[in-house]
Amino acid sequence: AAEIVHTLYARDDGGKIELWTPVAHHRPGNMDRILGGIGPFVMHRVEIDVAGRSVSLAPVPGGESFQTEFPRIRDDRIGRRVSWGFSGLQSEELDFDFRGILKWDFERNRLAGAVRFPDGAVGGEPVFMPARGGGGGDDDDGYIGMLLWHSATRETTFALFDARTMSDAPVAELLVPRHVPLGFHAAWVGEAEFQTQLRAAGALEIRAEADRRSTPASCL
């Protein structure tokens, strides 16, 4: 038995479904984790043969010794064939204690790279931010952005890592003037989509105000 919480990527290749996902196998008595009774989450490639009515799974080569969760591809490529994916590198001591970023190569079926944060730094979900607008560029043409909590200095920074080179050194890192608590999930919203959402929110507010004005006082 095994547990799957978040999936990374899937595609249908001639009737065989290829699924990439962190998998944690059943481990009775292991109650020291947030999800009790299971072992560490390790990236697996699952092949579902629909016609043959069979399923096989195996750890992705190169990633067998890494615990990982919160997998992501770039949001503007969801539903399309892509070559690269990313996930959070967890420490071995605690669940969801992300100490780096892992990069996965779907074409060569392997771990392609790893970013390791400085000692004492904890991150979150690796969100891909494209380097160019309009959905152009390769699947790894951009940056992985996230907030980092530095336990030694008790400071929060926002860091951008090169998704192509996967260098440990961030491309840019900005100090956040206030502590930001670590969260779970995140999303990248480009300027055009942000403006669309602002207009939609404004239209909703105008309609709500009109409804309030048209409602008789006795009904309030």
Task: Provide a concise account of the structure shown.
By secondary structure, this protein is mostly beta strands. Helix content is 11%, strand content 39%. It contains one helix and 14 strands.
Distance between the termini: 55 Å
Structural class: mainly beta
Largest sheet: 5 strands, antiparallel
Shape: globular
Rg result = 21 Å
Number of DSSP-assigned strands? 14
| SSE pattern, N- to C-terminal | EEEEEEEEEEEEEEH
Total helices: the number is 1
Helical fraction: 10-25%
Report the average pLDDT across residues: 89
Strand content: 35-45%
Question: Low-confidence runs (pLDDT<50, min 5 residues)?
Answer: none
How would you describe the overall organization of this protein?
This protein is mainly beta and 220 residues long. It contains one helix and 14 strands; from the N terminus they run ββββββββββββββα. β7 (84-90) and β8 form a beta hairpin. The longest helix has 24 residues, at 191-214.
List strands and helices in order, with pairings.
Layout: E1 2-3, E2 9-13, E3 16-25, E4 42-49, E5 54-59, E6 68-72, E7 84-90, E8 98-105, E9 110-116, E10 121-122, E11 127-130, E12 142-150, E13 155-162, E14 172-176, H1 191-214
Antiparallel strand pairs: 1-3, 2-3, 3-4, 4-5, 6-7, 7-8, 8-9, 10-12, 11-12, 12-13, 13-14
